[in-house]
Structure formats: structure tokens, C-alpha cells
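Tutorial sheet, problem 5. The two components below are modelled jointly, 689 residues in total.
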Amino acid sequence: MFFHNFKYCIKTMINGKVTLFWTLIFPIALATFMYMAMGNLMEKDEMFKDVKVALVEQETDNSLMLTTLFSSIKGENDEALIEPEVMDEQEAQAALNNDEVCAVIYSGDCHMDTRDENYKTSTVKNILDQYLQNSYMYKKIAEDDPDKLSEILGSMWGDTVFYTEEATTDGSQDRYNNYFFAIFAMSCLFASFSSLYTTHNIQGNVSALGMRRNISATGKLMIVCAEYAAMLMVHFVVELITLLYMKLLGVDIGHKYPAVVLTLFVGCMIGLAMGVIIGSIRNIGVGGKIGIAVGVSMVLSVMADLCVSGLKNMIEMKCPVINRINPAALITDCFYTLNVYDNYNRFTKDIVTLVIESVLLVAVSILIVRRNKYASV
Amino acid sequence: MEYAIEVNNLVKRYKDMLALDHFNMSVKEGEVFGLLGPNGSGKTTTINCILSLLSYDKGDIKVFGKKMTSGSYDLKRDIGVVMQNVAVFDELNVYDNIDYFCGLYIKDKKLRAGYVEEAMEFVDIADYRKFVPKKLSGGLLRRLNIACGIAHKPKLIFFDEPTVAVDPQSRNNILEGIKKLNREGATIVYTSHYMEEVEQLCDRILIMDKGKSVALGTKEELKRMIKNTETITVEIADVTEELLASIKAVPHVYDVVMRDESVKVYFSGGSHNIIRLMELLKDRNITYGRVYTELPTLNDVFLEITGKELRD
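Model answer (C-alpha cells):
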């Protein structure tokens, strides 16, 4: 009887294309559009490289010094981080207005024009200020006490501290990955649509199918367990397909694949559990229950940074308990911790919370739905 | 005599409304038992209580001599139900639907495959085995509904208004199918508010109203319960009071009613009543049109006992 119900539950899910659309096609389509919109934003917006500045020549010596200074600033692989380009004033202002350069530097008095204040312009400004301070200092020393000049120059090198950054993790620090983690979370929660229908169709007082199954020679618990197992398997496979697709897109989810797969499995569990509890709500038709499932899934996913970046952090500051119980936030946090941390402490806590929530939701639903006799049908 | 169903003193309340009022019913094994009554009389509530789907406030229910509970899976194995509302999976085709529901009763795959084929042949839906419910007409959908309820060859089958919104051809097929099931040994409980179906099918009929049993017996026994044994209708254009009085004086006539240029004459007992009536009209040189005679129906039984029509 178990396998019989298991088999037919899978068949109804596969034939019921609406459910498959929402749980497979929609997240994949959303991920694709997000990748097209934001795929390389980290590279473009966050990384300090390919910084173009315009240099307006006003005094020949300074412009040569500035060109040499900026060209000498190189990255780890010896690539130039700042690209100065000599232009006349009109050209430079036009390039600034068109965002072709982030700043215009006048070589005469070394002042800088910018349109926006961001870390790139701040860094260039900082370099320029250091140049001005040091060049003024050395000119003054050369004028007042030229004997001391060689000594000062020697200590300048001595004071210089060279340090390198050493990351504690090899995971991606790209914050735009959070959007894709939130898509995984949303996809897991969309599993609630399947379990919602199943729970609705097992209740004899709300559905003709439920009546027929209640009066059959197979116990309700057997039917429910078999169908839950079937839905879990189908949705887990759907999540694995989504995972594969994200990998093909180039989304970096780290290298801890067993833990990622476990996250998706537990994510499906909580999604199904959500659908079970929604499906057991009385006095609401199937349409209303679907509306609740969509609303709840989307709200929880948005709160986990699905469409609005920073919302999860804001919730963490104002009311952190929400992030501790929001299944979508827990799922995205699992992905994040796998990427950033070396140990599994926080990951384990998130997974255990998700499992406990699933068990609680299912237990409550069973208490509501387990009646074998109804007051009215 | 073995009883398939014994219901004693059943009481069921929905808040303030008394749906079943100390209701009693016994169904013999192997018979076709009709449960007749207007909408809201308690037919479906009775069935749902017997099936342990509904809780009830008082009373005792036994099926095949054993107390029926929601956990009586051995009893449920022998029960089939064809519900008023079509209960099939829209995502599964005809074959899969029947196989699924049969599988809730029969574990053996090979045995079940045979039963499914037989069920499809029985309701004549085998040609549509790959069709999904959305592609079926109303009549075919009802046949699928029946197949899902009887595929596992139950000994006791409940048909709860199975012909609602069904075309005449499909209705005949359904009724013939039920007779065949009974010939093969199944006990049938058939509920309907269509008296013609109940008269055609049932060995014994229980008429119920407002949760109570109002009459029980074979259709002949029920009809003998009432005064009327024959109604003759004659189309007469000019009807006078004198004519009506003389018709009323005909032996065995207990009532005469004038309605829409016709005269309805109600007889209680007697034979060859039509001859006596025609002789009277001929003697009086009365011109008349069509004449037809009707035997009492269950609706007449219901009307006389309760004062209202079976049909709403």
C-alpha cells in the first residue's frame, strides 16, 4: 500500500504541470534573469581595478609625476589598477559626465573633480592627498635643509609597511550570491504547493477525494506518509536540477557539496511541512490556501534578501529572532556559512532549527487532520 | 436471515438541526435496498454515518454483523461507495484512477490488474483508458466514478445519487450495471430522489423525511399503504357540477378533481374502473378527448404520508 500511494503521488505530481512550473521552471527563469542583470556586478562595482581617471595638463612636471604615480599602482598580478589618460579640460569633463572616468585631476594644483562619492574616488583622492603632502614635505626639506633629504628619503622606505591580505576562506565573498541563495530558499518553500493539495485531498470533510480515501481499506497515516515521502523525493530532485543549473550559470556556491545537498533536502522538508499546515487550515478553499502559500513563501523569501538586498541585515539588527525562525533566512544562511566559514557550527544550528520546525509543523497538522470521523462533511 | 447493515436508533445533529431522528434501517444481504426521500431528508447523512465518515450522537451501526468503526479495515475491504460527487484525480487517466482506488483495497498487483480491466469493461469505458477526466463527458465521468468505487469487487456497495446530471443513455447503462452487480452477489444500497429509478431497481424501499423513516416495504407493499389504487384522467371540455357528482358516485371513486380541462378520478380498490367510467360518460353523451390511467407511484405514497411531493 505504501509503494502504491508513493507511485501514484509521483505520477500526479509529474502530470500536474502547474506544480512543476512553480517549483522548477520559475526559479530557474528567475535565476537566469538575475544572472543576466547582475552576473558580473561584483566585478564591476566592488573590485578596485580598471579605475579610469582623466588628467588635465596644466603644468608639465606635475602631470608627468602624476602619470608615473598612478601607473605604478599595481595589483597582485601586476595589473595596473588606475588608468590615467591625458585630456584637455573639455574632453575630461565630458568623459566625467558620461561616466567614462570616475575623476578629473588637474595637474596644476592637483585638485580633483568627481561626480559621485564612492570608494574608488575616495581611494584616488587619498592617493592624491598623500602625493601632495609628501611632495610638499620633500620640497620644503630640500629648500631648508638639503643635507637631511637623503636621511628622510631613507626613513620613508623604512616606515613603509608591506602587508598582504590572507583570506581565511576560499569561498566567494560576492554578496550578489545572496540573491541566488534566496532563490534556492524560495524554490524550497514552493514545495508547499504540492503538500497543500495532498493535505486538502486527504480530508474527508473538504474534498470528495478525501471522502473516498477516508472510507477505503488503507489507513490515512499510511497514505500521508507515502505521499510525503514521494513529494520529498520529487522536490529534492527538482532542487538538484536547480543546483546544477546554477552551477552552469556560474553561481559560486562553494565546494562543500554534501552540505549543500543536505541544505536542499532539509529545505524541501520545511517547504512541504509548510504546505501541510496550510492545507490543514479549515474553512478555506484550495484557492485560498494556494494564495496563502504563495504569500507566505514570497514574504519569507523577500525577508531573506530575494529581491531587496540588505533587508535580512536590517531584520538582524532590529529583530534578529525573525531570522532565527524564518525558514528562507535559515536556508540562505546555510549557503552563506558554507561559503564563508571553515567550521560547521552555525550551519549545524541552522539545519537543526529547520528540522525541528518541519517536525513541529507536521505534528501540528497531524493533530488537526487525524480525525477519522467528522462532525459534518 | 443475515443482515448486511443494521442501523438502530441513529441520532445525528448538526448544531441545532436534527438530521437523523432515531433512525432505523436494516438491509438484507443480497438485496437492492432503496433509500428514497427529498433533498435534505438525511439519505447521505445516513450513508456517511454507516461508513464511519460522520460522527453521530446516538445509536448503533453494524455491518455484516460487526460494529462499524473508522478502524474496521476488514469491513471496509468489502465495502464500495459510488459518491454523489465525482471523486477522481484530474492528473491521472482512466486506467490509473481505477487502479489507484482499487489498490487501496487490493495489494496483489496481478489480481488488481484483472479487476481494473473488468471494472472498465463493466462500465464500458475501456476505450477511454488513456483519457484524463477533463476529456470525458459527464456521463463517462460518472461511469469512471462508478468503476473507481466497485473495482475491488465489494460485497456491499453504496450508490449515492449516482445518476445526477447524467444523460438518459448513461443513466440506463448505470442502472443495468447495478442490476448486474446485484446478480453477481453484491448487496446494494441505492439512494436517490428519482423514484422511477428506485422503483425500477430496488427490492425494498425505505422512504425517509426529516431524518425519520416514514415507510418501508417493497414497492407493491408501499403502494398498498395508501388509499389510491388507480387514477384515471379524462380530457373533458365542459364539466358541470352535476357531472362531477355523478362521477363521484361511481363505485370505488373517493375523489374527483378538475384540473386544466381534465378531470382526475381517484379510485380506491376495484377493477375495470375505466370501463365503468367510460360507460357513465357515454350514457351522459359527454364528449371527451384523451383518457389515460395511472397506477400510484412512490411519489403518491410520499405525498399521502407526508403531504408533500418527493421532488422539490
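Marking note: The interface with chain B takes residues 1, 4, 8, 11-13, 15-16, 204, 207-209, 211-219, 372-377 of chain A (CB under 8 Å). Full credit if you identified this.
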